[in-house]
Specification:
The chain is of the alpha+beta class. The protein has six helices and nine strands. The chain has a domain at 26-42 and 91-230 and 238-245: RlpA-like domain (Barwin-like endoglucanases), CATH 2.40.40.10. It starts with a helix and ends in an 8-residue tail after the last helix. The model is unreliable at 1-25 (pLDDT under 50). 2-acetamido-2-deoxy-beta-D-glucopyranose binds at residues 96-100. Residues 35-46 form the Glycosyl hydrolases family 45 active site domain. Its EC number is 3.2.1.4.
């Protein structure tokens, strides 16, 4: 009898995932979390191989922002590395429309690890500050030893270098990066003097993101937008959810000017 009950339990457990996938997948991480911001120019940790369940890894760039092949180049953050791997400038956030943005983040999730979150995507809904109610889909490109649990450290140029800094080496930024080491620049006009390729992401923070200062979020794991995968080169095989990328592989940047309705006075 004892053996029989074990078999029954095992059979039931084996059946569950099949039922779930027939229903389009379930599970994945979700909960409430916090955010911070950074841009340290370093090679993101998911840029090393063997961090995902697919063998894919986040695209990294050379010092001149040109795509590197392979995943073995040392980080530009490592001591004594003159020409290593850096974060590609096109892994900057952008506005998809008035209420949705796409981007990347260093991630740490309770009870999870890099093998589970590298290149997974999370839909963040901001719950505090001036972006409250807006949504951002981030792909996990990195992790951080100084992150708390359920913590999304959103990558945005000028967001502060944090613990490590390759921006001085790559772009000639001040010794502790642009602005404060933690938090970065504090006004939109400071983005004016940024390297050309980092300007848009720096402005994004003060435009779509409304200069929000570490807003809280609710989050849930989602299949990545194909537009993020096209830029990072990284996607996962199915895990707790169906990871097939969704939507168009290229999504342009929304600007308020392009869609602004005539003002009442102009009618
Ligand atoms: C904004 O874009 C997202 C992603 O494509 C879409 O789900 C959402 O419906 C859009 N919202 C508006 C207001 O257009």
């Amino acid at each position: 009898m004892h053996v029989h009950s074990i078999l029954t339990t095992a059979a039931a457990a084996a059946t569950l995932p099949l039922l779930a996938s027939a229903q389009g997948g379930w599970g994945g991480s979700s909960g409430t979390g916090r955010t911070t911001r950074y841009w340290d120019c370093c090679k993101p940790s998911c840029g090393w191989g063997l961090k995902t369940n697919s063998g894919k890894y986040v695209q990294t760039c050379d010092k001149s922002d040109g795509p590197l092949g392979g995943s073995d180049t040392k980080s530009g953050c490592d001591n004594g590395v003159a020409s290593g791997a850096y974060m590609c400038s096109n892994q900057s956030p952008w506005a998809v429309n008035e209420t949705t943005a796409y981007g990347w983040a260093a991630v740490k999730l309770a009870g999870s690890n890099e093998q589970t979150w590298c290149c997974a995507c999370y839909e963040l809904t901001f719950t505090s500050g001036p972006v409250s109610g807006k949504t951002m889909v981030v792909q996990a490109s990195n992790t951080g030893g100084d992150l708390g649990q359920n913590h999304f450290d959103i990558a945005m140029p000028g967001g502060g270098v944090g613990l490590f800094n390759a921006c001085t080496n790559q772009y000639g930024a001040p010794p502790n990066g642009w602005g404060a080491q933690y938090g970065g620049v504090s006004s939109r006009s400071e983005c004016d003097s940024f390297p050309e390729k980092l300007k848009a992401g720096c402005y994004w923070r003060f435009d779509w993101f409304a200069g929000a200062d570490n807003p809280d979020v609710t989050f849930k794991q989602v299949a990545c937008p194909a537009a993020l995968v096209a830029k990072s080169g990284c996607s996962r095989n199915n895990d707790a959810i169906n990871e097939t990328p969704t939507g168009p592989s290229s999504v342009g940047t929304w600007t308020p000017e392009a869609t602004a309705a005539p003002t009442a006075g102009a009618v």
